[in-house]
């Protein structure tokens, strides 16, 4: 075999080297290797060629034994893990990707104890760049927060102006971001939606809007259409991508980890207008399919929690407005302008936060607005005042409610705000605080 031939040649070279080395020391007293072999019973009867073949066989046998030892050790270690033992990180190299990505020890141990296949098992550990991002670990997974569009330098070759392809009518309709406020125009706009207009005691200024949506393999044409309607309106656009679908089928990142991903990301950064901070952040779940079986929307809810952290990073205030939506949904531009300036009851300061949202009644269509579903409506996007948003509002005024996952994630429990029923929240949360907080509600997660 080639391995034996190579080994024989190597050993011959070593033998010759030893001969020369011994001769220099002892003045020519014979070959050390031959002397050692002659002391082994029966070996003195073998020729030099037979001795080399025997040594080659012994070397191969040693290699096989060495490899077998580590293979058996690995199997036994894996068996110990499956039985619930060996929870230390060093005993399971599969945990190293989570460590590099900033996943908490608690989340790692939870994954380890629960058994089954984890999303991290399919994770490409070469993507260590993600581990350098600011990250937050929660019981259901981890968020990785990348720079926004105002913090990056887009290569000249990727720079483009979305408005360059607009028609003259589109320019006329979308060129409405002047800092000057046309009072008469705004009064008419507010009246058309049955909103009041700010009185003399209310400041006449546009509210800042913060957008949150999940993103995956959505059509570029759909993203272009909705972003055009929202061009230069939002203060921040928070988009979150995951490396799984909602039923936990693994998928590749679209906006991370490759040259094409960088180009798509640079394209996305520019669609919403130069005044808007656009970010794409990343979510890696720690859940298994058997944990969310029949409740696939839980993964969407978990993923959306990253929006409130991004909004907080971007300076969201209690008087700002959060828009929670899907990438293929949008309020009309005219309605977004109304939300910015009109007297919307849900946006008045000092909210109880119990019925905090403005819900859309949305047309549903396929391919074109001319192909709308008859009699079918969709009640999203949602708009909510910042003082009622998780991470933004005051938990002293709006104590946390009870939810069905880890007490503070997932859906609100019955009587704790689910379907706006607050009997248990009143009796078991507010009453225990020994404060006069009757009528107050909890903050809202962004879903």
**Secondary-structure element order, as H and E?**
HHHHHEEHHEHEHEHHHEHEEEEEEH
Return residue spans where pLDDT drops below 50 for at least 5 consecutive residues. Answer: 1-32, 74-126
Would you report the number of β strands?
12
Query: What is the helix content?
Result: 25-40%
Radius of gyration based on Cα positions: 33 Å
Would you tell me the overall average pLDDT? 80
Describe this structure as you would to a colleague:
The structure is a single chain. 36% of the residues lie in helices and 14% in strands. The longest helix has 35 residues. The protein has 14 helices and 12 strands. α1 crosses α3. The protein has 447 residues and is α/β, with parallel strands linked by helices.
In summary, what is this structure?
By secondary structure, the chain is α/β, with parallel strands linked by helices. It has helices at residues 2-26, 32-38, 48-82, 96-100, 105-114, 168-174, 183-192, 220-229, 259-271, 289-292, 297-304, 306-313, 333-341, 423-430, and strands at 134-138, 141-145, 209-214, 236-242, 277-285, 321-324, 357-359, 362-365, 372-378, 382-385, 403-405, 409-412.
């Amino acid at each position: 075999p080639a391995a034996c031939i190579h080994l024989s040649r190597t050993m011959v070279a070593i033998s010759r080297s030893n001969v020369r080395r011994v001769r220099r020391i002892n003045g020519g007293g014979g070959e050390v290797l031959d002397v050692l072999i002659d002391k082994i019973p029966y070996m003195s009867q073998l020729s030099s060629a037979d001795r080399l073949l025997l040594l080659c066989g012994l070397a191969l046998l040693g290699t096989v034994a060495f490899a077998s030892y580590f293979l058996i050790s690995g199997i036994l270690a894996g068996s110990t893990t499956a039985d619930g033992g060996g929870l230390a990180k060093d005993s399971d190299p599969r945990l190293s990707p989570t460590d590099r990505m900033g996943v908490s020890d608690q989340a790692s141990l939870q994954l380890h104890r629960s058994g089954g296949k984890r999303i991290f098992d399919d994770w490409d550990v070469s993507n260590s760049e993600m581990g350098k991002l600011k990250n937050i670990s929660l019981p259901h997974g981890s968020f990785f927060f990348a720079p926004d569009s105002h913090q990056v330098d887009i290569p000249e070759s990727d720079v483009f102006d979305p408005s360059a392809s607009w028609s003259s009518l589109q320019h006329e309709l979308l060129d409405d971001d002047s800092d000057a406020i046309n009072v008469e125009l705004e009064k008419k706009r507010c009246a058309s939606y049955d909103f009041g207009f700010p009185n003399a005691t209310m400041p006449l200024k546009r509210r800042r809007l913060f957008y949150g949506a999940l993103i995956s393999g959505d059509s570029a044409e759909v993203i272009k259409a909705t972003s055009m309607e929202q061009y230069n309106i939002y203060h921040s656009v928070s988009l979150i991508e995951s490396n799984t679908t909602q039923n936990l089928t693994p998928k590749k990142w679209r906006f991370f980890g490759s040259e094409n991903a960088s180009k798509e990301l640079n394209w996305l950064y520019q669609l919403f207008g130069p005044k808007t901070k656009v970010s794409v952040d990343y979510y890696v779940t720690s859940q298994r399919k058997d944990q969310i079986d029949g409740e696939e929307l839980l993964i969407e809810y978990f993923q959306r929690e990253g929006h409130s952290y991004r909004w907080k990073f971007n300076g969201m205030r209690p008087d700002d407005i959060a828009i929670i939506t899907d990438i293929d949904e949008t309020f009309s531009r005219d309605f977004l302008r109304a939300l910015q300036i009109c007297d919307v009851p849900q946006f008045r300061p000092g909210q109880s936060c119990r019925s905090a949202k403005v819900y859309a009644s949305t047309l549903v269509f396929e391919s074109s607005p001319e192909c709308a579903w008859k009699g079918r409506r969709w009640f999203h996007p949602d708009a909510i005042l910042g003082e009622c948003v998780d991470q933004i509002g005051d938990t002293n005024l709006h104590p946390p409610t009870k939810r069905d996952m880890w007490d503070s994630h997932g859906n609100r429990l019955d009587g704790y705000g689910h379907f706006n029923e607050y009997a248990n929240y009143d009796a078991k949360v507010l009453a225990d605080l020994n404060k006069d907080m009757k009528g107050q509600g909890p903050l809202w997660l962004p879903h």
